[in-house]
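Hi V.,

You were right to ask for the full record rather than a summary. Here it is.
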Amino acid sequence: MNVTDRLIEALEAARLTVGDGQPRNADGPLTGRYVVVRPRQIMRGESSIGDPNADRQPELQITSVGPSRRAADQVAEIADRVALGPMPPPDGCEWQQAAVYVTGTATTTEPTTDPTTPEAPTWFRVDVYRYYLTPV
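Predicted structure:
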């Protein structure tokens, strides 16, 4: 498993829905709440002289989505605790240090672009985290 897989596993263990979307309906409090995880760049760290590019610093983007601003913020707060919390290291690696929050966006809305099918807007927030890995 790589670092993306480990994060998704931890988010699912925290009972967050991870994926591309979830249909909206009136069934329960988590409807329309989910996260999407996207790998971003992988920077190389300063490793040993024998293998100077062995250390990696991947960044993962978590987009937290909800049917309202409050719902998107609640999902993002849970995802933040998970992303910065303890996780097993990826296969063949160990953590060099704790994960760090890199950047993010304010919670905002993405209204429907089709005026013939009006619906409630989707709210989302994007946060980016960096992980520090070294080979075992």
